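Example record for the data management plan.
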Amino acid sequence: MKKKYKDIGEIEDKLLEECGEVIQAVSKARRFGYFNYHPDRPDSNNLSDILAELKDLKSRIKEFEASAKNVKEGTAYKLADLRIASIRNMKSQPLR
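Corresponding structural encoding:
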């Protein structure tokens, strides 16, 4: 994910987006081959694209887990509670 988009959106949306990107990268590799590459990006094959997307996904998982820890212990992990934590985090970030 590009740094300029890192803090835009809610954590659940960012997590879902990264999951989708992993699915897309794996699907492309299975269809065209792991060592095939896009003609516009000959320096990056489908396998390296999968690994890059997995790295992004791992970052989002850690971010989600950190947000989940802000939910009070003993309560259900409600998306509304996570969104509040995400909004609080966003308020501390300057607008771009």
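Summary line stored alongside the record: DSSP finds three helices and no strands in the chain.
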